[in-house]
Amino acid sequence: MIDLYYWTTPNGHKITLFLEEAGLPYRIHPVNIGRGEQFAPEFLRIAPNNRIPAIVDQAPADGGAPLSIFESGAILLYLADKTGRFIPQDLRGRNEALQWLFWQMGGLGPMAGQNHHFGQYAPEQIPYAIDRYVKETARLYGVLDKHLAGGRDYIAGEYSIADMACYPWIVPHERQRQDLTDFPHLQAWFERIRARPATERAYALAQTINTAPTVDEAAKKVLFGQDAGTMRR
């Protein structure tokens, strides 16, 4: 059994995509990040960076005590290794998948996240910041589009954790001021993943967890008002 500490963000969706694809038994513990539930002491023992997602594997492969993992990329890799699925088993294929997993973690996610922040949530519109992150998001879309050219169905050949990491960050493409028709190979890949039954199940589940996915003023103070002092409380 996998205990998943989750909220309906792109990083949260990565893990439900994997769990639904793999058919692993899991139970969700919602962590409403807009209401500060990520700062609860019991959650911080699992995820010291006060971010979702996190998991606790109640039956790790070493037969030891339950094992907690935080950071979505680390969780995807752990689950892939645990199941032997959704990561190529050969040296070159595995490393291709890992490169694109790290590309998402270090590039697509952070840049698209800043795009979301300055375009949707910042208290004032800063044209330079908006332009900077919209353009960088477009550049990253272009990188992935070029990689997918030439008949690739998925990022590392077969469907893998690289696709699961990237897809949720493309879902809000309109909010990121991106037009998928500008990236035809990426668009075909996106539609291919969206049509997978496990993807449909994962996103349907999200709608039952967070029935009002809005960021109000109280949530903004929680999400965007933290500093080093937060960790000293």
TrEMBL record:
Residue ranges occupied by any GST C-terminal domain in the UniProt entry: 90-222
InterPro entries the UniProt entry points to: Glutathione-S-Trfase_C-like, Glutathione-S-Trfase_C_sf, Glutathione_S-Trfase, Glutathione_S-Trfase_N, GST_C, Thioredoxin-like_sf
Top-level taxon of the source organism: Bacteria
A UniProt-annotated Pfam family: GST_C
Annotated ranges, domain GST N-terminal: 1-87
Signal sequence bounds: none
Molecular-function GO term, any one: transferase activity
Keywords: Transferase
Record has Transport as a keyword: no
Family as reported in the entry's similarity comment: Belongs to the GST superfamily.
Protein name according to UniProt: Glutathione S-transferase domain protein
